[in-house]
Design goal:
The structure holds 2 protein chains of 2 kinds.
Chain A (H helix, E strand, L loop, with lengths): L13 H9 L7 E2 L2 E2 L1 E2 L10 H13 L10 H21 L7 E4 L2 H16 L5 E5 L8 H10 L2 E5 L9 H7 L4 E7 L11 H10 L4 E4 L11 H4 L3 E5 L10 E5 L1 H6 L10 E4 L4 E3 L13 H17 L1 H19 L5 E4 L8 E6 L4 H10 L2 E2 L1 E3 L4 H7 L4 E5 L6 H17 L3
Parallel strand pairs in A: 3-15, 5-6, 5-7, 7-8, 8-9
Antiparallel strand pairs in A: 1-2, 4-10, 9-10, 11-12, 13-14, 14-17, 16-17
Helix pairs in contact in A: 2-10, 3-10, 4-5, 11-14, 12-14
Chain B lengths: L1 H6 L2 H8 L12 E7 L4 E10 L2 E9 L3 H14 L4 H16 L24 H15 L6 E2 L2
Parallel strand pairs in B: 1-4
Antiparallel strand pairs in B: 1-2, 2-3
The chains are: A alpha/beta, B alpha+beta.
């Protein structure tokens, strides 16, 4: 029997994609009198009904604080909260659920590692290695910790296609390198970074690696044990989950060696005015009442994604990206920014003589939502000598028809802004 | 498309493609930098003020059609204006592009930007150069931001 989607050969059937679309109520919205074509998934994804229902269910039926009370609702809330942690563990194939720390998002996860892992270890002249295609959230926390410790930030260059220059990377990881922090998928260019190789090189020199998975997790299967990465960070809202919830994965021995990030309730074992004993991991890093509804919603989002399967998602999005890449070349003056051999789901481009914001406004008027600007990656824009790009980013619920709407919109832009 | 045509009309394209007074002003008495962190666009505005009257105005920079045309049209409108009248002119312009209730003031050529009121996310593009002029008049040294 033929499977409905064969990841190696076929496109996912249109019927199946239609079924996925129907799970997302926001996709039925109309903007400017037209059915929404949502191509800003790199910024945030829409939410399936299952995620919305999971949050509503929590607030309607078992809203209570976790890890505190002995009453029934609190027990149910705690159970759901910890069940979601195990879902994240399975999703990333982490060895233990204690290695999963809930945070607000990728940004907070990176700041946590910068302040609790890197800062106590860094000596003046030590080095942190990042790349030239990082999001600001994987640049600024390192600049801050470098300013605090007199450590130095080293930046791996990229080539014109938007691929990491691996030889330069191998030269940059040296005896003073204390951490490599690199994106898994570039948010501005769509490049997939060869992270297995990055980690192998770093580990040969006994340097731990943090991967910024914000743009990766909804497009590629991630296995932190196969990768042997030391820290992995991602945000719930970019994988169909709620905003304000994210994950830091860290290897047990690293997390255990780190001091807490914030002090407060839940992160302690005992407190007197003389001495406070900290809780075990992961609670040591989860001070205060957490975003319980967000965690429950994230668990539902991961169930949803795993129900479809990341291989099927990757195959479908690969087809969309190829189709889009081909079709946009017909728009006069269009230049794709980011042409790496390995790409995921992001099409960044400029249009000669038209500012990205004007592209964004005109497409919006045709119901097509894209992102325009520097994508919180200003150094990438500087690398290409541009102020910004227009970016279409795809998710599992996008269709070839959505891509065609984008291309028709771009022809309209060209019509309004003749060359 | 009618709203789009209203905002992206001929006069705006003309000022986008061939902006007026787009140059540094040698011997400017006032100068300020403006920045729109949303899109990274930057503008420098120069004024030559004499006896409380703006004798010359120019700008450099900016990016999108709306911010460029707005800066170009603004420099034209400012020439010959009394410094004391700039704030009120800005306020009338701001009311127009944000669609504020009340009787609209006659703004002459600046009225081609009235269509911006249908595009709230673009109001900052239309007002960046204006905020920068106000900063220049206050002799503000730090770049002014639209945020």
């Amino acid at each position: 029997m033929k499977m409905e989607h064969d990841v190696l050969h076929d496109r996912v059937s249109a019927v199946e994609v239609k079924r996925w679309r129907d799970d997302f109520p926001a996709l039925r919205e109309k903007v400017h009198g037209r059915r929404l074509v949502y191509l800003d998934n790199g910024a945030t994804t829409q939410k399936p009904q299952a995620v919305i229902d999971a949050e509503t269910e929590y607030y309607s039926h078992y809203n209570a604080n976790v890890h505190r009370a002995v009453h029934a609702l609190s027990e149910r809330a705690t159970e759901a909260y910890e069940a979601a942690r195990r879902k994240v563990q399975r999703f990333l194939n982490a060895a233990e659920s204690e290695e999963i720390v809930f945070v607000r998002g990728t940004t907070e996860a990176i700041n946590l590692v910068a302040q609790s892992h890197a800062r106590p270890r860094l000596e003046p002249g030590d080095e942190i290695v990042i790349s030239a295609m990082e999001h600001h959230s994987n640049i600024v926390p390192w600049q801050m910790v470098c300013a605090q410790t007199a450590a130095v930030l080293k930046v791996v260059p990229i080539n014109d296609a938007g691929e990491l220059e691996l030889e330069a990377y191998e030269r940059l990881v040296g005896p003073r390198t204390r951490l490599v922090a690199i994106t898994h998928v570039s948010n501005a260019l769509g490049s997939i970074v060869p992270v297995a190789h990055i980690i192998k090189v770093a580990h040969e020199r006994e340097v731990p690696v943090l991967l910024d998975g914000a743009q990766a997790v909804s497009h590629l299967p991630v296995d932190v044990r196969a990768l042997d990465c030391d820290f992995y960070a991602f945000s719930g809202h970019k994988i169909f989950g709620p905003t304000g919830i994210g994950v830091l994965y860290g290897k047990r021995r690293l997390l255990e060696a780190m001091p807490p990030y914030q002090g407060g309730g839940d992160m302690i074992r005992s407190v007197t005015f003389e001495e406070t004993q900290y809780n075990e991991i992961p609670y040591k890093f989860e001070a205060g009442t957490p975003n319980i509804a967000g965690v429950v919603g994230l668990g539902a989002a991961l169930d949803y994604v795993q129900g479809i399967g990341l291989d099927a998602i990757a195959a479908h999005e690969g087809d969309l990206l190829n189709h889009a890449t081909q079709e946009v070349t017909a728009v006069p003056g269009l230049r794709i920014i980011g042409t790496a051999k390995e790409k995921a789901s992001i099409l960044s481009f400029t249009l000669e003589g038209v500012h990205p914001h004007d592209i964004g406004t005109i497409l919006d008027h045709q119901g097509v939502a894209i992102r325009a600007g520097h994508h919180c990656a200003m150094p990438v824009m500087q690398r290409y000598g541009i102020s910004g790009t227009a970016r279409a980013s795809f998710a599992l619920y996008n269709t070839r028809g959505n891509v065609d709407a984008l291309v028709a919109g771009l022809h309209k832009v060209r019509e309004l802004f003749p060359r | 498309m009618s709203d789009l045509r209203e905002i992206y009309q001929e006069v705006i394209f003309d000022h986008y493609r061939a902006p007026r007074n787009c140059r540094a002003l040698a011997g400017a008495s006032h100068k300020a930098e403006g920045y729109n962190p949303l899109c990274g666009d930057k503008v420098v505005v120069y004024l030559q003020i004499d006896d409380g009257v703006i004798r010359d105005a120019s700008f450099e920079g900016v990016g999108c059609a709306i911010s460029t045309a707005a800066a170009s049209l603004m420099t034209e409108a400012l020439k010959g204006k009394r410094v004391g009248d700039v704030q009120i002119l800005f306020e009338s312009f701001h009311d127009m592009v944000t669609g504020a209730p009340g009787v609209p003031q006659a703004l002459g050529k600046l009225e081609v930007l009235a269509g911006v009121r249908e595009f709230p996310s673009r109001v900052k593009c239309a007002t960046l150069a204006w905020h920068t002029v106000l900063a220049a008049l206050k002799d503000q040294r730090e770049p002014v931001s639209t945020e």
